[in-house]
Amino acid sequence: MRRLALLALVVPLLAACGSTRDATATKHLLLVVNAPFSSTPYLGRAIENGTRLAAAQVNTIGIRVGDQHYSLTVRTMDTALSPARAVANVRRAVSDGAVAIIDEGTGVDASWRIAARRGVPICIVFAGGQSLVDAATRPNVFRIAPTDHGIAFRLAEYLVPKHLKIALLHDDSDYGTAGAKELQRAFAGDPASVAIDETLPADPLDLSPQILRARRAHATALLVWGRPATIASAITAARSAGWDVPFYTPPTGADPFVRQQLADHPSWVDGLTFAAGRLTAEVGAGPFSAFTQRYVAAYGVDRVGVHTPAGAAVTEPPETPMYAYDFVNLLAVALTKAGSTDPAKVTKALEEVTVEGANGDERAFNRSNHDGVVDDDVYFARFHDMTYAPVKDDPLSATLPTTPQTAQ
Amino acid sequence: MTRVAAAVVAALACAGAAHAAQRIALPSPIAPLSAQPPLDGGASTAAENVAHSVSSATNVAVAINDAGTPFAVTATQRLDVRGLGDYFFTIGAPVLAVRAPSGSGSGSVPGMRTDSIVWAGFNPGERLLVARATLEPAKALAALPIRIRVSGDTTTLENATGVSVGSFSAEAPRAPLVAYLARLRAEVAHGRTPLQTSIPLASTPKNVRVTVTAPLHVTGTIGSQRIDVMLSGRTRFHGHGRIVLRVEPVERVDEITATSGRALLREAIRATLMLARANQYDEFLGNPDPAGPSQTVYAYRTASPPHAAPIAAVGHHRRTWVETALVVAVLAAALVAGAALWARS
């Protein structure tokens, strides 16, 4: 026992005296992806792939911090969409010395405090809830994804001038509830354009009664904010009743699940208009196209599981991977700017750096705004033949090219 | 600063070689004559294939104490942005805080970084961006156009825009100078960006230094006294009390009075340099569109400085060298005792 105590005392001293460290050897920095790999594998994989793609590129030259070279090591942790599990993951990531966490968003309301104790930055790349990110009260939380606030206000900006009577339908999931709040704020300035405000059950079997209520309220458009299953059910209920009302949705309207559910009735998807973050920048489609090629070369195409009438397989552009990819690149620049791997210093440096995003846009945070996708960058696209194209009756959308979405 | 130095060196080099070439460039009526204003390197835009037309209007509120010393500076900038497409503007400034004032009609919310305000978004064609920034007084003061000193019953206003720059003197034919000054006057009167020109010389130019100040129109009140002066140097007013002054840089070109070619050249150089200096003070925060118009109004007001809360005395315990030596000695003794134990066991 005494020997052990002595060893515990002497060994660290000897190690400290005798070590001649190789300053040129590359050290590893841990980057954790905290996402729902088991419950929504497509989303989890998309975030992981974007992270790994950027990390691989960063590691080709490494990150120089002072005299030391670093490379990024990516580790995944499954949240299963459980806040408790997401929080436990963050606790483990922080204790394992993670330099940053890329997160789908589940559980961040609790997990940010755990990460904040060591200053570890968390970047959300999917959830858009307004309260998740606040530069003043949650200084270590960042986001690269369209915000619910931006989506709702852009939808109002787009729809109100059309003089439609809109039924605001949202499901009772966290996502639907957060969206409902933002929609109420966005349409508060023009209540006359709202025909009815209705809550739908998440993952419903049949939404016919709710859709009928909207019809009886003389709605001339349905704005459905909910999970993909809710949107698919709402479309099914309306179309099977012979109601050809236009549908508008947040980004979940473009989720492959909606098209998969409606694969037997492709015409029901036609005309569905959704709001989402733009995929291309002012410089054109070149940067996003190059990013897509790199992504496909590494991981293959993400197939939606449906076909166009011409028989081509429909693919999903790598939007969510793009956000994770951009954060890793910002992180690499921030590490260099910070001149330190101390997560707290890296968090502060993240507020001061800018990179060119995968879509060619400037990607950046600042001290007063930790959202990397500005509300102005929300565009609208409409489905036709299972693929979508930017609309022409919105100033931003009209400037954007159509992103390729088919493969042989 | 490097840019300014390079411009001066280039002007002098031109002056030296001018007589042989018979032409010489007059100073630029828009190039800055010192490092600031605009603050912190001015404004810039990230190129994304879009060049927006931007006009800038800035109100700088300067809070002064009873002695006339500034203690707080706030700048409110309105950027009127024209043109379809993305924008990403960086406005250099020693910012402590920034926000879009409520009711300002700002189409977006400004971001803040170390020494800059940032704007990012999509412009559907026309967009107003309004930022109100609280500036670090120590850094902003050097770029303010006037100094105020209150001493007893006297209030002194001093134009603080003076700067000494390298120039030249020579004989020159009158006609091109008269034509240039007339054009310059018309451009300024119509709010167009004045252009630089070159003129022929009739003698070898000599390097000289000139002091340039931006003419300032100062209006307002000092106590009950109304003030309305063109301030180019220092002026004293008898009177004291609450100070409320509005200061505007004046871009103008005076009527020609000189008769000789040398004197006319001196007037032309002075006119262009004064325009350049006034233009600098009209760009207190800079404009991301280098060709866009900028205007700044400075408002000085007497106010009560905030009283700093007394800082509680906090005891810092630092180990003295004696204590450090003792700790080392104890550790060494422990090591020796440990080694002895090891040897006996």
Descriptive notes:
The complex is a heterodimer of chains A (408) and B (345). With 408 residues, chain A is of the alpha/beta class. Chain A folds into two domains: 27-147 and 320-375, Response regulator (Rossmann fold, 3-Layer(aba) Sandwich), CATH 3.40.50; 149-277 and 377-407, 3-Layer(aba) Sandwich (Rossmann fold), CATH 3.40.50. Chain A is built from 13 helices and 18 strands. In chain A, helix 8 links the parallel strand 9 (221-225) and strand 10 (247-249). In chain A, helix 2 (41-61) runs parallel beside helix 12 (319-338) and helix 3 runs parallel beside helix 4 (108-116). Chain B starts with a helix and ends with a helix. Chain B is extended, with a radius of gyration of 28 Å. Chain B contains five helices and 17 strands. In chain B, strands 2, 3, 4, 5, 6, 7, 13, 14, 16 and 17 form a ten-stranded mixed sheet that branches. In chain B, strands 8-9-15 form a three-stranded antiparallel sheet, with no helix packed on it. In chain B, strands 1-11 form a two-stranded antiparallel ribbon. In chain B, a hairpin with a 2-residue loop joins strand 8 and strand 9 (154-159). Chain B has 345 residues and is of the alpha+beta class. Helix content of chain B is 25%, strand content 39%. Chain B has a domain at 2-41 and 55-74 and 135-302. Classes of the chains: A alpha/beta (408), B alpha+beta (345). Chains A and B meet through helix 1 of A and strand 4, strand 6, strand 7 and helix 5 of B.
